[in-house]
């Protein structure tokens, strides 16, 4: 324990009734605090895991509250800062509003069409061409290609609003498209 405290930059005290009742608590606390009595280097990081009465030698330190789940976001930030770990904010929630007017069957074994997939990727990233029309006779795989691309290659975080609509379905004319979308 002594060597661990001497070689470590930080000592985490997980504060519970059982920990505080242990005889090792005083020893560990004394060793940890001897190296930095004012805790300026944050060598001792008390973490309150359950509600308990803190002894004088620990109570003067600012503890991280993991006792209350409502405080966990703040507690994790405090703990990471105390450990000199980079604190990264959680990613902002993405509001994805994709509308599937009609679903095309999922194709487990879709393969090939790499050139066409790349053409669709390039079109989506292009800022000048706003309309892409894919035409061919029925049965050539236009819907399968675009369904696979739409669901597997379009970044939903970047393109948060999208519509999939099939005009082949019964009562799916342009008026229905406008009304539902």
Keywords for this entry:
181 residues; alpha/beta; three-stranded parallel β-sheet; two-stranded parallel sheet; elongated
Could you please describe the fold and organization of this structure?
There is one protein chain. The chain is an alpha/beta fold. The chain is 38% helix and 11% strand. The chain has 8 helices and 5 strands; from the N terminus they run αβααβαβαβααβα. The protein has helices at residues 2-7, 17-21, 23-34, 56-59, 72-82, 114-125, 142-152, 174-180, and strands at 11-15, 44-48, 64-65, 97-100, 161-164. A 3-stranded parallel beta sheet has the order 1-2-3. The chain has a two-stranded parallel ribbon with strand order 4-5. Strand 2 (44-48), helix 4 and strand 3 form a beta-alpha-beta unit. The longest helix has 12 residues, at 23-34. The radius of gyration is 30 Å and the shape is elongated. The mean pLDDT is 80.
State the end-to-end distance.
66 Å
How confident overall, as mean pLDDT? Answer: 80
Biggest pleated sheet: 3 strands, parallel
Instruction: Work out the number of β strands.
Output: 5
- Which class of secondary structure composition applies to the elements? alpha/beta
Radius of gyration: 30 Å
Overall, the morphology is elongated
Supply the number of helical segments: 8
| Oligomeric grouping of the chains | single chain
Give the helix proportion (percent range). Answer: 25-40%
Low-confidence stretches: none
Strand content of the residues, in percent? Answer: 5-15%
Order of helices and strands: HEHHEHEHEHHEH
Please give the order of strands in the largest beta sheet: 1-2-3
């Amino acid at each position: 324990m002594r060597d661990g405290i001497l070689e470590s930059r930080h000592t985490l005290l997980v504060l519970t009734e059982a920990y505080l009742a242990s005889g090792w608590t005083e020893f560990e606390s004394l060793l940890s605090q001897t190296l930095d009595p004012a805790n300026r280097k944050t060598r001792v990081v008390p973490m309150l895991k359950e509600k308990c009465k803190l002894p004088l030698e620990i109570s003067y330190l600012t503890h991280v509250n993991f006792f209350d789940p409502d405080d966990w976001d703040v507690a994790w930030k405090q703990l990471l800062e105390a450990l000199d770990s980079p604190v990264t904010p959680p990613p902002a929630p993405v509001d994805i509003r994709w509308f599937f007017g009609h679903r095309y069957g999922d194709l487990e074994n879709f393969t090939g069409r790499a050139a066409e997939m790349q053409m669709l990727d390039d079109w989506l990233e292009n800022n000048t061409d706003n309309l892409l029309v894919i035409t061919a006779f029925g049965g050539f795989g236009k819907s399968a290609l675009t369904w696979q691309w739409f669901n597997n290659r379009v970044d939903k975080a970047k393109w948060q609003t999208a519509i999939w609509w099939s005009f082949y379905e019964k009562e799916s004319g342009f008026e229905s498209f406008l009304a539902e979308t």
